[in-house]
Amino acid sequence: SSAEFSDASAEVFADRTEGGSRPTTRPRWASRYARFLVLSDAVVAALAAATALLLRFGGAGGTYAWVTVAFPALWVLSLALCRCYEPRFLAEGTEEFRRVVEAAVRVVAGLALFAWAFDVPFSRGYAGLALLATVAGSLTVRALARLHLVRLRRAGRASHRVLVVGGARSAVEVARGLVGTPGRGFKVVGLLTDDGIAAADPAVAPVVGSLSDVHDALAVHRIDTLLVVPSAGFEARDLRRLSWELEDSDVDLVVSPNLTDIAGPRIHLRPVAGLPLLHVDKPEFSGVRRLAKAAFDRVVAALALVVLLPVFVVVAALVRLDSPGPAFFRQQRVGRGGSPFTLWKFRSMHVEAEHGLVDLLDQNVHDEGPLFKMRRDPRVTRVGRLLRRTSLDELPQLVNVLRGEMSLVGPRPPLPREVDQYGSHVRRRLLVRPGLTGVWQVSGRSDLSWEESVRLDLHYVENWTLWFDLSILFRTVRAVTRARGAY
Question: pTM to 2 decimals?
């Protein structure tokens, strides 16, 4: 109960004010990872500055030789000021990269201010070369290190140990999301629920106590991240006391609002009268950003069609040689606003495949929903299996992107018979153009359940950004290489 938690928290706070100290729980992997980044950033900055000195002054730059010596320390200091070495930002992808760029901007601003204040002439060529090379090097090192760290996390290592505290249903829901994405680095050690009993799915994480057991659970389970979810027995004063308790520890306090599938770009903190209110922006289905997305789609599609023309010729020839029939397969799909369009693909099945679908419906791998998929579909040709495994059969959809019927990134383009079975909330997938790739493509493709594919598509529809699109395009390359769920 709230009273029990308040009493327990008050005892902990009292211990702190009387001089008690809590042990640090900073993960060792985080410290090693941060030290590696500090060293690599210093080395990258030293090499970049030395190269700029050599190219700009032939290696003898006088004052710039001293600048070259000091530059690595300046770069590491700027990164530290931008909090690039804090555990919560390590391997966080876009946010981590953004902070590196912010550090570079601070260095530029600092050098410019110094040169102006003391009337010191400064070589823009030297500074530009050194900074561009340093930023590129630091970003590259972080990208490679992040790939290695994600592999470790998927193997159950190098993760934050998380304790979820709050209402039973909310705790299980949040824990299930974290368990399903091990690459994000959050290992749910246990749950502390308002009644201290297991909720819907104890297999997700064990319930290790009630709200009043926070203090003991942090020490026993070596927790470094405490995640608080909504609970009727957890009031504002309880959260405030909990934050006081954690001040002398390395335990991160994270609070989950009662909002699901709403991403960060749509959520803004608005302090009003001392209250941290969350402002939730409306989804963007039109406007300048949509025009920019459409222009980007068509330019990239046009360039890709030109570059991939030899691949089209080879694949088309292989399809024709493997089985009788046309090289391309055309099918009616449903696009934005429910408008039908003709989707193009390389043919991966026998010509009469559509007529044999009825006899195979009982072998659908999806127990629910209108989507039909089977692992060893007899209608798929030999070349078709290769095309599906490598996703080469999808390339002709670049024509649909060029014509404005599809986007490079978006929800899966549905069949009319699938749309006929959509519920009202699922029809929100039709608010945007379907995509050549999407969140479903990089999250398992055909291995996903119908419910999960709908959730991912709706998440994209309501939270898309151009940066999100670019990240999905990059992740698609890895998904295609792994061929997971491609059949």
Answer: 0.64
